[in-house]
Amino acid sequence: MSVVVQIPAALRPQAQGRREVTLEGRPLTVGEALSALWAVHPSLRDRVLDEQGQVRPHVNVFVGAESIRDGGGLAMPITDTCVIAIIPAVSGGCNA
Amino acid sequence: MVDSRQVRVRDGDVLVMVGTTKGAFLFRSDRRRARWERGGPHFPGHAVYALAYDDRSGRRRLWAAPASAHWGSSLRWSEDFGRNWSAEAPGPRFPEETGATLTRVWQIRPGPVQQPRVLYCGAEPASLFVSNDGGESWSLCKGLHDHPHRAKWQPGGGGLCLHTILPHPTRKETIHVAISTAGVYRTDDGGRSWRTAHKGVRAQFLPDPHPEFGQCVHKVVRDSAQPDRMFLQNHWGLYRTDDGGETWRDIANGVPSDFGFAMEAHPHEPDTVYIVPLESDEFRCTPEGRLRVYRTRNGGRSWQPLTKGLPQEGAFETVLRDAMAADACDKAGLYFGTRSGKLFASRDGGAAWRAIAEGLPPILCVKTAVVLKAGRSARPARGARAKPVVRGRARA
């Protein structure tokens, strides 16, 4: 029983190259889960969140197949068997 | 995975650091500047608006501010010319109580040689960050951030950015900054308080052409010999001040357009400045399809086109505000990059030019460095010397 966070390729250097991180403890929300992730890999935080603690506009966070933007944001509740995926949004690509 | 080419930099080499919309490139040559080797791209896919080289106190540290549309802006440094980059330096961050978030860093500016641990960053939204420990930590300049004008500053086409930082070479409490669209601001108490320093600069895009603030200053450079003499490229208008920004006067004498972005001062020759005029704020391309650098050698009383080696037909180019730089060689080299990805160089002060790279992504910034032996320190910045150093060519 554990929460797993999938790390996108662009951020793996900040996560010691790991594709996914299995979290210790039992976070109850996405925000708590991500805080647990920052505790292990602190430099990931500023890449996913801005200074105001909001998910960057061109970053998507999914719990299973559901975007947290449709499920309460960082306050979205999670179960202790879920998979959280951090995925760059297609809207945020480099200016062509 | 994008392959990044490395360059082998030797003591005495000249570096040209190029930031583009899709990464940074590093060009190196020996002092003859006849053959250039390209390194990069570094930070592929990231827009690099700001690069800097810090050679104070024996350092050989290259700074970069890559910004990802997904992952935000960060500050990185390398002490082996890009072979390895710091994991992620703790760069500028807005305090939570400001409610602001960093869009990107537009400028990284090492402080004067006499302050070897001071660094500045200019950011978007327009703000100044300061490090007093060589970049280990950064703090927002509250004096500027709390300025009563700030709430009414408006973004220009590139965003609301603080793009130019000019620490005074000898008066350590005096700094000028330029903001689009706000104007020039000056502090004389180390950043605690700021006042406007753009009297005489027109804002002809506003109902009142001389507002208290709102001038769209594109670039400001300092004269090599007289620190209180500065030159300014405005969104329409070329200006000079001789009194540290208290008053400015028009010097657009004989240029095809007084609109443009890029401006650079000669590193040793006083009163010598370079610009690339663009045709109108609607078109923003070189007039008549001719790529011409204009140079004044008399403080703006007259300007002459420099065209040798530059395309004079069908060249509808744009050179952005930070995309021109001079090197510190005795016979100064000049460099500029275009939005079409061409990098031009002159090794004789602008008399003749050639393209040293084409096909780069759109060029955002161009910076230079002359690599000293490891452990040797930079000389005092220009303007800090009583007399300019001029060797190898006659003065105007």
Walk me through this protein's architecture.
The complex is a heterodimer of chains A (96) and B (396). Chain A has helices at residues 30-40, 45-48, and strands spanning 4-6, 20-22, 59-63, 66-67, 83-88. Chain A is of the alpha+beta class. Chain A has one domain (4-92): Roll (Ubiquitin-like (UB roll)), CATH 3.10.20.30. Chain A starts with a strand and ends in an 8-residue tail after the last strand. Chain B is mostly beta strands and 396 residues long. Chain B has a single domain (14-370), classed as YVTN repeat-like/Quinoprotein amine dehydrogenase (Methylamine Dehydrogenase, Chain H, 7 Propeller). Chain B contains one helix and 28 strands. The model of chain B is unreliable at 385-396 (pLDDT under 50). Classes of the chains: A alpha+beta (96), B mainly beta (396). Chains A and B meet through helix 2 of A and loops of B.
The CATH superfamily of chain B turns out to be: YVTN repeat-like/Quinoprotein amine dehydrogenase
- Largest interface chains and counts: A-B, 22 and 21 residues
CATH topology of chain A: Ubiquitin-like (UB roll)
Sketch the topology of chain A as an H/E string, one letter per element: EEHHEEE
How would you sum up the major sheet of chain B? Answer: 4 strands, antiparallel
The major beta sheet of chain A can be summarized as: 5 strands, mixed
% residues in beta strands of chain B: 35-45%
Helix content of chain A: 10-25%
Level-2 CATH architecture of chain B: 7 Propeller
Poorly predicted segments of chain A: none
Strand segment tally of chain B:
28
Q: Report the C-alpha radius of gyration of chain B, rounded.
A: 19 Å
Radius of gyration of chain A in whole Å, from Cα? 13 Å
Q: State the helix count of chain B.
A: 1
SS-based class of chain A: alpha+beta
Question: Terminal Cα separation of chain B, in Å?
Answer: 51 Å
Domains of chain A, number: 1
How large is the share of residues in beta strands of chain A? Answer: 15-25%
Strand order of the largest sheet of chain B: 3-2-1-28
The outline of chain B comes out as globular
Mean pLDDT of chain B: 93
